[in-house]
Queue: 3 jobs
Job 1
Amino acid sequence: MSQSSSDAPAAGRGLGRERAGRRSARAAGESTARRNELERGGFFDHPLYLRTVRAERTDAASAEEALAAVRLAGCKPGAFILDAGCGNGRHAVPLARAGYRVVAFDRSAPLLAAGRRSAGGARWPIFVRGCYSSLPFGTWRFDAVLSLGTALGYLGDAGDQRALCEFRRVLIPGGRLVIETLHREQLDAGFAVHEDRELPGGGTLRSDRSFDPARGILHEAQRLRDDAGWGPARAYDIRVYGIDELGSMLRHAGFMDTGWYGFLFGEGDPTPRTALVALARAPQAPAPPRVRAIRRPAASADR
């Protein structure tokens, strides 16, 4: 889910705020970030995006993905989980119902509102709005960070690097990061430029794609046909990383022992026909006293 730095909640919930200061970036990455800044309100906040997400995955499939991710991270119920780029809570809500203490984090107010409705007023997840390149949480707060469903790649190379550094910062020593994203080799090996895909929840998603291999940028225009007919075309860009690129970024962020898989179940190597799943470990370090209590955020304008 694309992220914006505005409207991040204030500190004071036991989740103190720290900001990274690095501003340099390669021209291609910054250009992508600027384009996506224009797209965010029109694509991820648009009602058609929420309708598409709900039709693309059944609740059972989303729950299966979420539980596979926390098992891959080695977490048991009761663990503190950050779902970074949570969207409408399709992973955070079933994790909370399974006993995990989940903070669901996204920049999209409409998607967070949909997640709160799905949670039905339960104690968990806690829904927080902000940008994952500048997390409003204190250091060493979470047992695992999940970045699922291609949530990484919307901030440009420098912004994505800052996000990885932030993920490591908020993880406890030895905590795990699970990333599920597009696989660069899948695009290099060829992909469907035009596709009409029937969705499990009903309707058809029409996608027209182009990939710039020099910059690693995928451009996709989508149209959804459901009971209301064909919706308007909407487009986004995403930076797609290969194993070498993402591995280098994870090492730069301070992660260790990265494993690569084709599936969230931790099985199989990534191939041109699978997603790219990374499991990385934050380094061990002497742990200071940790205040793990996470209070509910005060009411805010995006509720």
Job 2
Amino acid sequence: MADASAINSDGARKGRGWHGDPEGHAKAGRKGGSRVSQNKDHMSEIGRRGGKSVAQNREHMSQIGRRGGLKVSRDRDHMSEIGRKGGGRT
């Protein structure tokens, strides 16, 4: 049972956590996300900072490339197309 001090005057629980209202939770997430994503300068700054910090870690970049290569190599049609073209420039 919830503590009486954790319930506001409307009878709803206080706080910022999950309270069992999936639609309300989703609505709140969409509201915040749409506002932030509309600010193109803010989003580009986030991407720029993230890219700089990742690119400085050579081992991490190596792992990313390795994982990408493994994903691509699983696409047999793509790999056979590469093989048909041969070793020349495309």
Job 3
Amino acid sequence: MKRGILVLALLAILATGAFAQGFSMAAGGGLLFDWSPVGNGYKGTIDVPGMPGSYEGIVQNLSFGGFGFFDATYAELDVSFAYGIITGKTKGSYYGSSLDANLGSGSALQLGFTLLGKYPIGLGGFTLFPLLGADYNMILSNWDKNGHPYGTAMDFNQFGLLAGAGLDFPFGSALFLRAEAMFHLRFPTKPWKEAAATSSVGGYHAFKATYGMGPNIKIGLGYRFGGGNGSASSSSSSSRSGKYMLVNADALNVRKGPSADTALVGSLPRGTRVEVLDRSGTWWKIKSGKIEGYVNSSYLKAP
């Protein structure tokens, strides 16, 4: 547990230091689905002379629940609460006899913390962002199929790594729908590492703990503070008096009229060069390639 907390804290410090300027903030929540079809456990060979064999113990975890997130453009912090369905089985053979068996099922309540680094890329009307990070899942309670507590819950706490991508679909002035799909790699838990070590005693067995792998899916609704579905630093009007400006937001919405209530024409990524056609009020009319419409001038800056 201590190792996982220290790693997450270090990642948070690095992310904050690297991206301390020029970020927007958003928050929201939604539903999550996490599955480990390649489960944690241990496997290896049975090296008894004249009686070769192999053995594999596997625990698969299917979790679903809810999560909340805080987003700072280049970093995302998630806190989740999920219910897990756990199944166990063995596979293998020994001296010609099968060792395949089902070990039954159980359940668990899990509290998870996830820190992700991300890089938003504006693509028309939505934003794509690659994701890379780590998570730490704490088992609050677990029990077998008969409802009896199973082992020490905290012994099954688990640290993992994640990689994938997400999409933000803006609607309205500040709301957006977020979808993320990642692949996780979960490190062996304490009971499986101890089981592998115990099985290897005496030189007759050669076992090692295995990693859990599978998909992690999240779908949620978010709100971007400051509106505009993008981030920006305000500039004075005197520094933004040129004909051409640069987009200073992750995904700046371009609208049909000078209001956030009008239809969405498109979206421009950070750094896009736009031609200013009209500067009346807060909403300026701009043109960039085939996209022409109105944007909140707070999200433009001088080149």
